[in-house]
């Protein structure tokens, strides 16, 4: 999941990283949202208007991955 505030997580079990939205680029019907996590670049390709409106350049975000 992508969050703007620290989500609940289980230390040692869930992957949680914070970073910043560095840019958004339009690609035909999709928007590519670029997020920098400690130098690693995560690119989210979406056509969801809600997600595109939720995230803005230089927003601090948390990415959580869990089973």
Automatic annotation (TrEMBL):
<dbReference type="InterPro" id="IPR031555">
    <property type="entry name" value="RNA_pol_Rpo8"/>
</dbReference>
<dbReference type="Pfam" id="PF16992">
    <property type="entry name" value="RNA_pol_RpbG"/>
</dbReference>
<protein>
    <submittedName>
        <fullName>Uncharacterized protein</fullName>
    </submittedName>
</protein>
<dbReference type="InterPro" id="IPR012340">
    <property type="entry name" value="NA-bd_OB-fold"/>
</dbReference>
